[in-house]
Write a structure and sequence with these properties.
- With 323 residues, the chain is an alpha/beta fold.
- The chain folds into 2 domains: 7-196, Rossmann fold, CATH 3.40.50.1170; 224-316, Rossmann fold.
- The protein is built from 8 helices and 13 strands.
- The chain has helices at residues 37-42, 67-81, 98-109, 131-148, 214-217, 238-245, 263-274, 306-317; strands spanning 7-14, 52-60, 86-92, 114-118, 152-157, 160-163, 168-169, 178-179, 187-190, 193-196, 226-230, 250-255, 278-283.
- α3 runs parallel beside α8 and α6 runs parallel beside α7 (263-274).
- The chain is globular.
- The two termini are 36 Å apart.
- Bound molecules: aspartic acid (ASP).
- Aspartic acid binds next to loops.
Length: 323
């Protein structure tokens, strides 16, 4: 459904896009999360020609993203989305965990308006900063998505639009660090034009998305504890046994091949599952889907990466309703 609202709300959470370095020649030795969202918006010429509002929700290097910030951010996104005059939301975010926040917000809010995450690979002080262009593109994608009736959470980086389910940081330094794997991107931004590559039914998130109120209302100290372990040459069950002894409630294993596991790690995971710990196998290769397991095996996580399978399992284990 097309939307006649025109206000874009930009929420700041920190990251390299808000980072500063002592020298404009320095693209790697910088401190993330230094500039306010108002300063980032002021650095984009013409951005406020159309209605834009901003709010600082957090100021963090996203490697340190927490469940508490996720909950606070989801509540602010939900608040602004409910305003009739709001066409869409843009969130500035560090690139390290941007894909996790995108998936979390999609699964928890299942928004009926566009929510666009963006960031930068170079700090704001860089002579060749990519943040202002990414922020301009993100606002444009939010506005254009609203105009044509596209909803849901996406990420916009380096002129490319990625769906929340598919988006993945795949390179530590390149400007085009993000990809959508074999699913491919949803669209591209060229100048002031957004070209959609996938139809609106492209699955930006899980199939049966519906808002999950528990993640908004339940204290984060009571969210289920779900950890990730990795299968690799020489793996053992020691990490799994230690986590179980420490009270973990769910385990995602980043598996080799089509969900294959080192036999020692697999034995420990089967024991954990028998003791009541929820276990999911996802592919550590970062692409494709893990096919269903044999009868007594460990359930697969479909096409979800290990970090997104962790979110999915955590939400699945979260009791509904307030504590
Ligand atoms: N460590 C930074 C962050 O995730 C990296 C970035 O934003 O590019 O906040």
């Amino acid at each position: 459904m097309q939307n006649s609202a025109s206000l874009i709300v930009v929420l700041g959470t920190g990251g390299t896009i808000a980072g500063t370095a002592p020298s404009s020649a320095d693209d790697s030795a910088y401190t993330a999360a230094q500039l306010s969202i108002a300063q980032l918006l002021a650095a984009v010429p013409g951005l406020t020609a159309a209605p834009v509002e901003s709010e600082q929700v957090a100021q963090v290097d996203s490697k340190d993203m927490s469940h508490a910030i996720w909950q606070a951010l989801a509540l602010r996104v939900a608040y602004h989305l409910a305003r009739a005059e709001v066409a869409g939301i843009v969130i500035t975010h560090g690139t390290d965990t941007l894909e996790e926040t995108a998936y979390f917000l999609q699964r928890v809010l299942a928004p009926a308006k566009p929510v666009v995450l963006t960031g930068a690979m170079r700090p704001a002080t860089s002579a060749q900063a990519d943040g202002p262009g990414n922020l301009r593109d993100a606002v444009m994608v939010a506005r254009e998505s609203s105009r044509v009736g596209r909803a849901g959470v996406v990420a916009v980086m380096d002129g490319t639009v990625h769906g929340a389910r598919q988006v993945c940081k795949a390179h530590p330094t390149r400007l085009d660090a993000f990809g959508s794997g074999e699913a491919g991107p949803l669209g591209v931004v060229q100048g002031s034009n957004v070209s959609w590559l996938a139809d609106p039914a492209h699955p930006v998130a899980a199939s049966a998305d519906a808002p999950l109120d528990a993640a908004l209302t339940r204290s984060v100290t009571q969210w289920p504890r779900v950890e990730i372990v990795v299968s690799h040459a020489g793996a053992s069950g020691a990490v799994v046994r230690a986590l179980c002894a420490d009270g973990v409630q769910g385990l995602v294993v980043a598996a080799t091949g089509n969900g294959t596991l080192h036999h020692e790690l697999e034995a420990a995971l089967l024991t954990a599952q028998a003791q009541g710990v929820a276990v999911r196998r996802s592919a550590r290769s970062g692409n494709g889907r893990v096919l269903p397991p044999a009868a007594q095996g460990l359930p697969g996580a479909s096409d979800l990466s290990p970090v997104k399978a962790r979110i999915e399992l955590m939400l699945a284990l979260m009791p509904s309703g307030a504590p």
